[in-house]
Structures are given as C-alpha cells and as structure tokens.
Design goal:
This protein is of the alpha+beta class. It has 2 domains: about 60 residues, no CATH class; about 110 residues, TATA-Binding Protein (2-Layer Sandwich). The protein is built from 3 helices and 9 strands; from the N terminus they run H-H-E-E-E-E-E-H-E-E-E-E. A 9-stranded antiparallel beta sheet has the order 1-2-3-4-5-9-8-7-6. The chain is globular and about 45 Å long.
Length: about 170
C-alpha cells in the first residue's frame, strides 16, 4: 500500500470530513458512531451507543445495557440496603442489563475475611445461602431471598486488598 499523493488527499479527506460533520450534526460523537458501527458489524443488529461521562448506554431492539466504570462511582439508584458491602468500599464499575445489576467494588481486607463477612451479613439480612465455593485465588457465595438472587465473588486486589463482584437479579422462572 502506498502513501497518498498530494492530489489524492482531497479526494480522501473531504469525504471523511463530510461524514464526520454529518455525524456531529446528528448529535453523535465520532466515538459513539464508531462504537455503533462496530457493534452492528459484530452482532448484525443495529445498536445505539450514548455516553455521558463515565456511563455508556448500549440500546438494541432486544434491550438496553448500561455500564459505568471509574475510581469511585455511586451505587445505582434504589440499591437494596439488605445486600452486603464491605467497610471502606469504593465502587469501580456498575452494569445494568435485563433487570440484573453487576457491581464491582474494591475494599481493604482479604478474600478470607470478606468471604466470612459477606456470608454472615447476607444471612443476617434474611438471605438464604445456597452456594459457597473456596479456591486459593477466589471465593464465591450464592444467596436467594424472595424473588431475588445474589452472587458474590471475592478476588485478591493487590492495590486495594479485595475486589468484590456482586450480581443481583431476579430468580429465573
């Protein structure tokens, strides 16, 4: 492939600028439009991508996925107060999809102490523990309460101590 000559530059750059301005005129950033095109190519479905600060929303005909990532995010509105969160936690990511929430928090501590604390706290709040798994590098717990289920996974985080990944969703029917 050869470099563009000076005569070819206008024929390549001008159409590209027209596309960029058309996309900008539609209220979409170039990044959002590129993301939509990539999703369409990967899935064969039309997708709308919107970004607002640390939050990205991907919408398709099948539903919507909302994702946020950062150093210390807020919990989602209406986050239940009967779900364990470790002392000194910082929310690192939040994803909402089809009624499920997946939240990652970092906190001081160890996976061993976090496992014991999470199990005891969830049961104190009326959750029934239905699963527990312990491996060298991670711990997992599963709970059910009414029509909800919660999955807790703890992994070592060299920077913060422990990373807790929490999945909340309705019990599958």
């Amino acid at each position: 492939m050869s470099a563009l000559s000076r005569q070819q530059i206008p024929t390549v750059i001008v159409p590209a600028l027209i596309v960029l301005f058309a996309v900008a005129g539609c209220g979409k950033s170039v990044d959002e439009a590129a993301s939509e095109a990539a999703l369409r190519a990967a899935t064969g479905q039309d997708a709308r991508v919107e970004r607002d600060g640390a939050t990205t929303i991907i919408s398709t005909a099948n539903g919507e996925m909302k994702m946020s990532a950062g150093d210390d995010l807020a919990l989602p509105d209406g986050f239940p107060d009967d779900v364990y969160l470790p002392a000194g936690y910082q929310v690192r990511s939040v994803m909402e999809l089809d009624g499920a929430e997946v939240i990652s928090v970092s906190a001081p501590g160890t996976i061993e102490s976090g496992f014991d604390e999470a199990s005891a706290a969830m049961q104190r709040h009326g959750w029934k523990q239905v699963m527990a798994m312990q491996r060298d590098s991670y711990r997992m717990l599963g709970f059910e309460k009414g029509e909800r289920q919660a999955r807790v996974m703890l992994v070592a985080d060299n920077d913060a101590g422990v990373m807790l990944n929490l999945q909340l969703q309705p019990v599958p029917q």
